[in-house]
Amino acid sequence: MNREKRILNTMKNGVTAAIIIGILAIAALLLAPHLKSSDLLTGVGTGLLVMLPVSLILMTLRGYRKMDEFGQLITLKACSVALMVVMGLCMVYFPLQMVLHLPALPLWIIWVVGSVTYGIAMAVLSR
After folding, report:
1. Per-residue confidence (pLDDT) for residue 82, from 0 to 100
2. CA triplet 78, 93, 55: central angle to 5 degrees?
């Protein structure tokens, strides 16, 4: 199996796991108010939501380990671009939040911006 197929297979497995974790977490959290064991389901749903970013980190790490040096270099560059975009967003928004009394920036926005930036950077750098 060549390099691209190995990495693609690893990423497919990771994305599949992330989708399954997300669906299970949402189902548990949506069912929790309607059942007697709502505390248990709320805990399970919250725990699964915590595991979602951890599973994505592990997926990326597994893919990184299967890459050659060039693929690892591209991945590191994409990670650094995503980090700088998220840092820039935070460094611009949080002082403006204090001065202009803007609403707090939800953490999920920071996570989504970083993930999307990473994906775009990987696509651009891989060409």
Report:
1. 92
2. 40
Over the chain (127 residues), the average pLDDT of each successive run of 10 is 72 80 85 77 84 82 83 88 93 92 88 87 84
* Range of the structural domain that residue 16 is part of: 1-67
Name the residue with tokens 């920036």. 105
Residue 83: per-residue pLDDT: 92
DSSP state, 103? P
Sign of CA dihedral 10, 11, 16, 20: positive
Statement to judge: residues 35 and 96 lie in one domain: no
Do 32 and 61 belong together in one domain? yes
- Asked if residue 77 and residue 112 are part of one domain, the reply reads yes
Instruction: Measure the CA–CA gap between 115 and 118, rounded to whole angstroms.
Output: 5
Residues 80 and 100 in one domain: yes
pLDDT at 80: 93
State the pLDDT at residue 14.
74
Q: In 10 A of CB 34, how many CB atoms?
A: 8
Distance CA(78)–CA(92), nearest Å, equals 21
Please choose, from the candidates 9, 11, 44, 3, the residue with its C-alpha nearest in 3D space to the C-alpha of residue 26: 44
